[in-house]
Amino acid sequence: MKQDNSGLKILIIEDELLIAKNISINLEQLGYQPKWFSENTDQLTKSVDPGDYDLAIVDIGLKGKKNGIAIAREMRECTNIPVIFLTSHQEEDMILKAAEVGPAA
Hints:
Layout: E1 9-13, H1 17-29, E2 33-37, H2 44-47, E3 55-59, H3 68-78, E4 83-86, H4 92-100
Parallel strand pairs: 1-2, 1-3, 3-4
């Protein structure tokens, strides 16, 4: 039985354009409504209302002044949106900092 995902909106915050687009395409094929941001991530929380989304997928290693952990922390201050972190980082301190935000995965 196919699950109906058509109403679920997913925010993707990834600074690598190809990765963001690939995630978006795959989510669309599964029936989700993704919207991704790969530029101006420092201003993201001022221009996007995370409360408009059902889930956020956030890259930890964003380029710019704020990393994904800081952006997720800001989002969690104004909404209970579940966050899934993506990263290629394997450092234990980075993983512990990410865990402090209370991600869904």
